[in-house]
Design brief:
single chain, alpha/beta, Rossmann fold, 5-stranded mixed β-sheet
């Protein structure tokens, strides 16, 4: 299975440097342009598209799918991390590297840890792996969903050696043949 994981295009809150989490904002004009631009970096053949239920992801997926015309699935396991009390806050005022880190596994008040997110993302990947063996799928989601996808394919980070992945809006990551990492 080949997965191309795409972070949704920009929204108003991204542009303002704020934590979105489960807040459901549509793409802004820059975000729509990012979704159109990423098409040129994608393979010619895609077998399916999976997306988070949040508007910014589904809108990005719909724009991309205008090029492919494949079945698009909304999967709630791909929803962004619940940042609880941090939603709407300026990112600059938070210790985001700790919030993104597997080894720190920082808790957000009234929200989820990154390992909570990883558990549901790993479950999603385990589920689709058998059905889409030998296929190319796109996953359109969020930065805190793309990190666990990376861990699934590349291994769980080791304390003291973790590089916190920074994924900008409208960027894609490509993964081949998962090692089938399991949650510790």
């Amino acid at each position: 299975m080949k997965i191309i994981a795409i972070r949704h295009g920009q929204t108003k809150l991204n542009a303002e440097g704020r934590v979105q989490g489960r807040s459901d904002y549509p793409l802004d004009e820059v975000g729509r342009k990012q979704a159109k631009k990423i098409i040129s970096f994608l393979p010619e053949d895609v077998d399916a598209i999976f997306t988070s239920p949040l508007r910014r992801a589904t809108e990005t997926a719909e724009i991309i799918n205008e090029n492919f015309g494949v079945t698009m699935f909304i999967d709630h396991r791909l929803i962004e991390r619940n940042f609880g009390d941090y939603e709407g806050e300026l990112i600059a005022g938070l210790e985001m590297n700790k919030l993104r880190s597997w080894t720190d596994n920082a808790y957000t008040p009234n929200g989820e840890t990154i390992r909570d997110v990883a558990k549901r993302v790993f479950d999603f990947l385990d589920t689709i792996k058998q059905t889409y063996d030998g296929k190319t799928i796109l996953v359109v989601a969020h930065s805190h969903v793309l990190r666990p996808i990376s861990w699934y394919f590349n291994g769980i980070p080791i304390a003291g050696k973790e590089v916190v992945l920074e994924i900008k809006t409208g960027e894609a990551l490509k993964f081949l043949h998962a090692k089938h990492n399991k949650m510790p």
